[in-house]
């Protein structure tokens, strides 16, 4: 379809043409257009007035918007200072140390880089198999999100430190990378969707994105460097650098001391008087 072009309305006021000395095309006598000329002048006056009012209104709106304080979109109702953190019952267990990571290549492997085996499974399990904790009601009342009471354990509430969920997730991703040894964790690929593997695929997908968010949240600012390698005559990445870390064994011990030993029944609802207005969310 041909593009329509804009064409201005071609109308000539005979009075204006006469003043300019232009010749009018053959047509009715000039007096026929005298009332139209007056109407046109009135219309132009009205349009100018309307345009002026709209311009003033627009300018006033712009001034109000400029003077109005900016609206900030937030996801919570508190604004902690840079040195403040949200409450966690494990804050007292936090102690920092300097650690150097294993690079993870031949010559600098970690104990977790052995082939899939019962020994490796046990090593991973030992990192987080105590991660579900029982905390006191007083501790639960200070959380930024409300948690549930433990049935049959008056005065205690269920909780889990996020680090142990992260380790659980990373372990599942590890298992999915070796589906011959862990067939239950074989996931579907882009061109090979298998319905029976949906649970593992969804779980691993959740875990990868949870770890991504956790890494971005933690944002380790330790600096990886490049150093000159004389033998290779080039600079190479040096990954085994110092990091400021929270002592993991301290956090482990905190969780082990509060490990939930009894089976938790999520079908039992317990009412309480804890009110957590910040970040409160539920399924009501």
UniProtKB/TrEMBL annotation:
The keyword Cytoplasm does not apply. The chain crosses the membrane at residues 46-67. Pfam families: UstYa (PF11807). GO terms for biological process: mycotoxin biosynthetic process. Keywords: Membrane, Transmembrane, Transmembrane helix. The keyword Transmembrane applies. Coiled coil: none annotated. InterPro entries: UstYa-like (IPR021765). It comes from the Eukaryota. Residues 1-28 are annotated as: Disordered. Pathway: Mycotoxin biosynthesis. Belongs to the ustYa family. This is Tat pathway signal sequence. The lineage of its organism: Eukaryota, Fungi, Dikarya, Basidiomycota, Agaricomycotina.
């Amino acid at each position: 379809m041909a593009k329509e072009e804009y064409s201005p309305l071609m109308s000539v006021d005979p009075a204006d043409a006469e003043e300019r000395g232009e010749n009018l095309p053959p047509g009715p006598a000039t007096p026929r257009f005298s009332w139209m000329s007056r109407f046109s002048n009135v219309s132009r006056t009205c349009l100018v007035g309307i345009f002026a009012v709209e311009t003033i209104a627009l300018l006033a709106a712009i001034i109000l918007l400029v003077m109005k304080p900016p609206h900030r979109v937030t996801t919570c109702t508190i604004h902690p200072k840079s040195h403040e953190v949200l409450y966690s019952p494990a804050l007292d267990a936090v102690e920092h140390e300097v650690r150097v990571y294993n690079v993870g290549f031949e010559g600098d492997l970690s104990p977790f880089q052995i082939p899939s085996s019962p020994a490796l499974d046990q090593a991973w399990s030992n990192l987080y198999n105590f991660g579900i904790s029982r905390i006191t009601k007083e501790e639960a009342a200070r959380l930024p999100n409300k948690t549930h009471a433990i049935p049959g354990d008056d005065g205690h509430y269920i909780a889990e430190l996020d680090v142990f969920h992260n380790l659980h997730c990373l372990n599942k991703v590890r298992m999915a990378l070796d589906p011959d040894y862990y067939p239950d964790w074989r996931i579907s690929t882009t061109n090979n969707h298998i319905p029976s593997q949906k649970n593992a695929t969804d779980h691993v997908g959740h875990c990868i994105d949870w770890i991504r968010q956790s890494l971005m949240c933690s944002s380790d600012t330790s600096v990886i460097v490049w150093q000159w390698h004389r033998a290779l005559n080039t600079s190479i990445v040096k990954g085994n650098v110092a990091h400021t870390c929270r002592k993991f064994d301290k956090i482990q011990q905190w969780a082990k001391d509060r490990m939930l030993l009894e089976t938790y029944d999520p079908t039992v609802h317990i009412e309480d008087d804890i009110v957590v207005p910040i970040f409160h969310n539920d399924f009501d």
